[in-house]
Amino acid sequence: MLLDRYAMEVAEIRILRRGSMLKITRVANGEVVFKLIGRMGAENLGELDTLVSAEARDRRIIFDLIDLTLVDQDGVRFLGRCEAEGIKLRNCPAYVREWTNRERGGSCSRKR
């Protein structure tokens, strides 16, 4: 069975602050996929950065944004910086892609 061949880890984190919620689901199967669900803003970035920093340096990291409903300016800048450091943005909404292209610069703290 595929699950026997690859150790799969699934974790779920919910970040509730100031009336908004960001749900983060983590699946690891050779690469690490963080699925971001809901609203992403400045208040979520510290926790997300901590999760990314906790991953092994040699693991590929992907943010799946298919269920991301709203991103503020700080969130867009964070995503752009993370992408510039090698984190793949999967299912990136067009408005986020356009905004990250305009906001290039800085660095996502992927403490490696």
A few lines on this structure:
By secondary structure, the chain is α/β, with parallel strands linked by helices. The protein contains four helices and six strands. Strands 1, 2, 3, 4, 5 and 6 form a six-stranded mixed beta sheet that branches.
Structural summary, described in words:
With 112 residues, the chain is an alpha/beta fold. It has four helices and six strands, in the order H-E-E-E-H-E-E-H-E-H. The chain has helices spanning 2-5, 42-53, 73-84, 94-102, and strands spanning 9-17, 20-28, 32-40, 61-64, 68-71, 88-90. Strands 1, 2, 3, 4, 5 and 6 form a six-stranded mixed β-sheet that branches. The longest helix has 12 residues, at 42-53. The chain is globular and about 30 Å long. The model is unreliable at 1-8 and 105-112 (pLDDT under 50).
Helix/strand order: HEEEHEEHEH
- Proportion of residues in β-strands: 25-35%
Which spans of ≥5 residues are poorly predicted at pLDDT below 50?
1-8, 105-112
Helix content: 25-40%
* Backbone shape: globular
Mean pLDDT: 80
From the alpha-carbon coordinates, what is the Rg to the nearest angstrom? 14 Å
Secondary structure class reads alpha/beta
Helix run count = 4
Most strands sheet: 6 strands, mixed
Give the N-terminus to C-terminus distance in angstroms. Answer: 34 Å
Number of separate strands? 6
